[in-house]
Amino acid sequence: MINRRHLKPILLGLLLGRGLLLSAQSPQPQAGQSGAPLPPPLPPPLPGFSQPITIVTNPIAVPSPTLRPTPAPLRVLPNLPPRPVVPVPVAAPSQAPSPLVWDAETKEYTARPGETNVLLTFNLTNTAPSEVLINDVRTSCGCTVARLPEYPWKLAGGTNGQIQVTADLRGKRGLLHKIVYVYTAAYGVKPLTIKVNIPDPMGDRGRNLQIAAADRQAVFKNDCAKCHAEPAIGKKSAELYTAACAICHDAEHRATMVPDLRALNHPTNRDHWKTWVGHGKPGTLMPAFAKSEGGPLTDEQVDSLADYLAEHVPSRPAAAPSTGASH
User: Fold this and answer.
1) Fewest Cβ atoms closer than 10 Å to its Cβ: which of 64, 144, 267, 302?
2) Do the Cβ atoms of 143 and 167 come closer than 8 Å?
3) Would the pTM count as exceeding 0.85?
4) CATH 1.10.760 fits 201-312, yes or no
5) What is the average per-residue pLDDT within 175-191?
């Protein structure tokens, strides 16, 4: 008895042998006929088999389905703070260098005692062959005023010009530092600086009073002579009073020990004025103006000043004694 598992190879062998025999007996295609040789006919089905066995002589390769990788499981990230947005720097538009050349970008000045304003001038040159348009000029504070020659100012090529700046010094002391802004049409804004050193009037006055108390003739010496002696040279009468007397007796911030000549508490006359002008008053700040006493005035000037005071300063009757200073 033949084992079933040995039957299949035997049947395949018989089929192949019969197929080859039939192929040899079948007519061959004539030379010159078109078309490829036909495959051999299939053998009849074997007893016991209901379906014929098909032999594939030219198998067609069927691609196997592409295997896709299994996606990795999603990871849940913790809540992180948002990243800050960093702005991308944008390059500023390039600007041509200004052809304006200045004599200085900073002007400094030291004010004299009692000076109420100062004028500073900036000189500039247009080095370009074409004109430069200056639209406006402004300052950082209302106490400082800058002016252009005209508005707008067209500065022709190769020419010079000036911008004047005035600073108000009233009520100020120490360093006055202000900015002046020059607006050009094609070259942006040019900042300029002014610095004014303002002396402290009270500090200077305190030192001067100490000097005068030690030597009342000190007002005619050194720097003090510029205000108390030199202005009186060659003057008489009313002009002499303004130059030599009013600077102290009519001053807005008169020292308390300097009296108002029009409000004295005792009678006055020409002799009174001549004595006190020529010889002064020892023990007070009143100096002797006569040259014979070390002062700047001649006898003729002393007489003219005594006449002016006797005529224009009214004499008052004697009043009760006062602790205030008097002449």
Assistant:
1) 64
2) yes
3) no
4) yes
5) 94
